[in-house]
Design goal:
Blueprint: E1 7-17, H1 21-30, E2 37-42, E3 44-46, E4 49-51, E5 63-70, H2 75-88, E6 91-100
Helix pairs in contact: 1-2
Length: 107
């Protein structure tokens, strides 16, 4: 149950190689999202083994986590763009319901 003063939105988190991050950022902006958070040097264990978070030679050698929150009416367009990108390269996407206190920040 949520407080009546909160507004339901959708949070999309994408972990991709640094070389794919610019395409994800452009896609997020193209659907009208008002912003995103980007964390580089992400580490973790997945299908392709362990990925260290430290940079080796450049920003593109590391994984990046991009997070955005959008109203439900923007989700389908964003997912339609992300699916082909993730089908063509390694990465993972998480989509969850979330609630925000200032919905005007996301519209």
């Amino acid at each position: 149950m949520t407080a009546p003063t909160l507004t339901k939105m959708i949070k999309i988190e994408v972990v991709v190689a640094g070389s794919d991050a610019p395409a994800v950022r452009e896609l997020i902006q193209s659907v009208g999202a008002t912003g995103f958070t980007s964390l580089s040097g992400v580490s973790g264990l997945g299908h392709n083994g362990y990925h260290q978070g430290r940079l080796l030679f450049n920003q593109q050698a590391a994984l990046e986590l991009l997070i955005t929150v959008v109203p439900e009416d923007k989700v389908d367009a964003l997912l339609a763009g992300l699916r082909p990108l993730l089908d063509a390269s390694s990465g993972v996407m998480f989509v969850t319901e979330t609630y925000v206190s200032r919905p005007d920040y996301f519209s």
